[in-house]
Amino acid sequence: xxxxxxxxxxxxxxxxxxxxxxxxxxxxxxxxxxxxxxxxxxxxxxxxxxxxxxxxxxxxxxxxxxxxxxxxxxxxxxxxxxxxxxxxxxxxxxxxxxxxxxxxxxxxxxxxxxxxxxxxxxxxxxxxxxxxxxxxxxxxxxxxxxxxxxxxxxxxxxxxxxxxxxxxxxxxxxxxxxxxxxxxxxxxxxxxxxxxxxxxxxxxxxxxxxxxxxxxxxxxxxxxxxxxxxxxxxxxxxxxxxxxxxxxxxxxxxxxxxxxxxxxxxxxxxxxxxxxxxxxxxxxxxxxxxxxxxxxxxxxxxxxxxxxxxxxxxxxxxxxxxxxxxxxxxx
Length: 331
Ligand code: NAD
Ligand code: UDP
Known about the structure:
By secondary structure, the protein is of the alpha/beta class.
């Protein structure tokens, strides 16, 4: 029958999209989630197991019960600002979660892991674009916990048959093009959702964090990648591991930069509504520009994003925030 994959954080934003991509590719995704931030109704493509990744026995049991051959590990806390206020929470959930997961894998004899890592592991590199050889020097506890997870996989892999792919995402954006899954975070902190909420009149003005950066329009530049492209990259990473090709770390981005003001303009174009904005001071810890060099993922996985233009990402995210987008213009 189908190969089964345990997807921790499978009720969350990116994990639920990965479950859909796995199902589409002929795998059975088992979503393993404690629902601290996820949504039960986002689990639609395979079984659901309610559990905490810090509980190694629960992970082991789920792997055994479902005969999983690999794990995709999304379960974590992921707010940079919160990690500065509550670092212990982040070390507990993200590093403790990785330990529990690895204990469960060892117990069940599962030795392939795809990890959600982050461009936050690079900190503020001096040279753009960022390649996988760029030094990883995180500037916040969130990035630090993700780097520790990568190191755990590397060190344990060197002493066992464990292999992994660490996927370092840049800015995830958008939602399922079919509209089956949405983007939902509580509290919402991400730029595109906040701009859509402002366009819908469900918030006050969108604050723009910094207008005096050394960038073309003075606002921060980021590399946005469609969540469904990220999901597809995970399936390719899984196939890489199943084919025995060995451990690797890969950036997932487009290499294209988009400024905060360009996002606002795209939201106005797509929705036909004005986004009220308010210029604010810089947000501490925000690098002016983050851009991926996507070359290695293209070479190793033959992965190229195909939905990651800003218009498509904004169009696909809009329904998550109560905005209907007219027909197909601009898609
Ligand atoms: P999310 O909060 O929507 O999803 C995380 C899921 O993990 C939630 O469903 C939550 O309930 C679950 N979870 C958390 N702790 C758990 C635990 N101890 N046991 C079981 N389940 C637990 O977040 P997301 O945006 O989908 O992020 C998924 C992953 O991708 C995270 O590891 C994050 O660090 C990483 N990441 C996200 C981005 C981004 O732009 N959103 C960028 C880089 C990396
Ligand atoms: N941003 C902003 N106003 C907001 C939220 C975000 O100007 O209300 C900016 C933020 O400074 C960053 C970019 O938008 O340059 C993307 O921020 P987000 O929090 O979505 O992702 P991050 O890059 O922090 O992972």
